[in-house]
Amino acid sequence: MLLCSRMGVRRFIVEASPSGSKMRAALGSFYSNPQVTLVDSINAAGTWRDEVGLAAPCLAFRGNLVMARSQLRSMLADYAENPSRELHVVSADADHGGSIEVGALGAILQGDGNRAGAIIQASGYLPFALNGRPEDREEAELRLAKSVRVESLETDAVLARLVDRRLSWRLSYRLARTRIMPNHVTLANTVLGFGCAAMLAQTNYWIRLAGAVLFLLSVTLDGVDGELARLRMVESEAGAKLDVVTDNIVHIAIFVGLMVGCYRSSQSPAYLYLLAILLGGFAISGLAVKRALNLTGEHAQRWIGAVERVTGRDFAYLLVVLALLNWLPVFAWGAAFGSWMFGFSLWWLTNRRRENAEARV
How far apart (Å, rounded) are the C-alpha atoms in residues 254 and 25? Predict the structure, then answer.
């Protein structure tokens, strides 16, 4: 119900005895919500049917399910594209003890979850039904943790997808069983990022290399706070903003530390000018990314996913390689002018997208 409410669902019909104390305890604050109705049977007549309407699109859950938001979002998108086709997905556990169905309320009530030819076997880890066995809970937790990595594939850069997420979900899975909260991870990772920046500002080769390697570790940890929030279902707009703000601050600190280290090593004032050029490039790139992410219309989601992949933190791998070769000045020059090229290119591409969208209209 919490997942559905975060996706915009506002009316819930729960098949359970309205007088059941266990159900009231399980629903918590949802129980007092006027948009939540408890009924003995959804097939029995009731005023809620007239209020909702048999033609209204409906999500029906059967069984004690563990699922991911991305699955619900995908099913709703598929149904929106073809409302005449009802979807019925059976859970991925060995017993197939649960299901999710999307369709008109009337059709779901009539079919009662047993329509021939409408059943799709779930692929991947979820949804998973808890069927009363002691090991079900641990299996469900593990599957949910694995699915978190899959949910971010559309927005992760290449190396983040291939390397970072394979490590971060395992750490998130273990942290979910502790009292550590996502914001604790965000703040700890920010402190680590500042430490990396201070190390890159040094002149000693080994300290700078260690700073680059630790920043790569910081990049991997950067995904843990979001994964942990989804595992615990405590995602919030404030937490997401904190993550974005601290990421950008750490990025600036890393590049400032890099420029300071290059200046201290060479005593060349060129790096002070490069720092000013870099900060200007960051400003232009930030504005360009904001415009790109605000794009709306057809295929906008795919475009936004591409922008988020490009603006990922895969550059941390290049930073480690160049630090190993003692070529950090090359990275400094490339970043200073590359930020301007990226910003203007993204600005131009966003304009082209908007013009094409307006032409289609």
Answer: 49
pLDDT digits over 284-314, tens only?
999 999 998 888 766 677 777 788 888 888 9
**What is the three-class DSSP state of 114?**
coil
pLDDT tens-place string over residues 196-224: 999 999 999 999 999 999 999 999 899 89
DSSP 151-169: HTTTTS-HHIIIIIHHHHH
Q: How many CA atoms lie within 13 A of 247 on its CB side?
A: 17
Contacts of 357 (CB under 8 A, 6+ apart): 295, 297, 298
3-class SS string, 30-62 = HHHCCCEEEECCCCCCCHHHHHHCCCCEEEEEE
DSSP at 91: -
DSSP state of 28: G
DSSP 88: E
Report the alpha-carbon distance of residue 240 to residue 132 in Å, rounded.
Answer: 35
Q: CA 310, CA 307: separation in Å to the nearest integer?
A: 5
Domains of the chain: 159-360 (1.20.120.1760)
Residue 225 near residue 242, CB atoms below 8 Å: no
**Are the CB atoms for 98 and 91 separated by under 8 Å?**
yes
C-alpha to C-alpha distance for 300 and 174, rounded to whole angstroms: 35
Specify whether the CB–CB gap between 272 and 121 falls below 8 A: no
Q: Are strands 36-39 and 87-90 parallel, antiparallel or unpaired?
A: unpaired
Q: What single DSSP character describes residue 117?
A: T
* Lookup: tokens for 207: 């300290």
For 217-243, b/e burial (b = at least 16 CB within 10 A) is: ebbbbbbbbbbbbbbeeeeeeebeebb
What is the 8-class DSSP label of residue 124? S
- φ, ψ (nearest 5 deg) of residue 240: -65, -40
What are the phi and psi torsion angles at 189 (to 5°)?
-70, -30
Rounded to two decimals, the pTM is 0.84
Is there a contact between 140 and 128 (Cβ–Cβ < 8 Å)?
yes
117: left (phi over 0), alpha (psi -120 to 50) or beta: left
